[in-house]
Amino acid sequence: MKLRKIIKYLILIIIILIVFTIGLSYAAFTTKITGVEVGETIYSSSGVMQIDYDGGPAISVPNMFPNNEEFATKTFTVTGKSSLEEDMEYHLMLVTNSNTFRTGALTYTLDSKNTGNNGEVAPNITQQKGISTGQGEYILGNAKFSPTSSEEKVHTYTLKLYFPLIDGFDHSVDQNKEFSARIEIREGHNFPLLVDEILAQYGGADNIEEAPEGTFASTSGSTDNLMYKMEDDYGDSFYFRGAKEHLNNNLIFAEHQWKIVRINGDGSIRIIYNGECPGNVCSINSTGTPTRIADTAFNSIANDNKYVGYMYGTYSTSPEAAHKNQEDSTIKTVLDTWYENNIKGTRYEGY
């Protein structure tokens, strides 16, 4: 009988410990995320737009922990009214006042609905986008109201926030963190430069640092998604560091897919070809033949040092003559032909 009592108490203690442990791990991510949104009215030359938030300004998250489901939603409407024959353009912004979570720990999506069947709503954001550490601004999208004949027309949006669970990752690094944000409506359309969009994902140029000493002494972690800066001949350049599956360096352009390699010090972007993307909708290629334009020799002739050039001289009577830009190399001919067939004469040529 005494042994049974001991076993009973041991089982009870174990159960209590298990419950307590679960409670601790759950409470580790219990937090309240608040926004400072307020009703805002935009008066433009074309009419009036009003933004309203459902449920007040605060986004209360009493039990937030890593999960693949959204931990909070915020529904808001934009109402447009105009008596003029002009479109009312606007864009939506997610503005983070502060964020001490690691970059990419929190993400968002946007569901859009043209409730009033008028104009165009901001496009849906179906793929989760990361929020960087610190303050920042994120364009949720451009939209517009067509002339409303003095009637009120409504666009409805639902912003969803996520704290994605990553298998095998120690989420304790995000304990006791804070996040504060608001949604803003601003007049007109906003078309940010690609370079600004890339840098914003990592907190902006001012918040990106040089790689710590010893960074490249080992292989990057399996879930790393980082950006570092270094000085080049033109200023600060920025480059990616991390696991291929987690880096946000894919670019869809001109019905082809590309990998962004780095941002140069002069603000230009260096990209590398990664395959076709018909209609600008496709799955991202990994490796192999689909990621190549062609397999070709750099030059089909190799009996003169001039053939190491992307272009070379017609004659080899002197080093200067051999290295003039007169003849195309084999690889240049291949690339020029690809450009003629895929970019030239299309709407993408101007870029």
Kindly summarize this structure in a few lines:
The protein is 14% helix and 36% strand. The chain has 351 residues and is α+β, with helices and mostly antiparallel strands. It is globular.
Structure description:
This protein has 351 residues and is α+β, with helices and mostly antiparallel strands. The chain has three domains: 35-191, Sandwich (Immunoglobulin-like); 224-292, no CATH class; 297-351, no CATH class. Helices cover 14% and strands 36% of the residues. The chain has helices spanning 2-27, 194-200, 319-322, 330-342; strands at residues 33-35, 40-43, 48-53, 58-59, 67-81, 88-99, 107-113, 125-130, 136-145, 153-163, 179-187, 225-232, 235-242, 250-253, 256-263, 269-276, 311-312, 327-328. A six-stranded antiparallel beta sheet has the order 2-3-5-10-7-8, with no helix packed on it. The radius of gyration is 27 Å and the shape is globular.
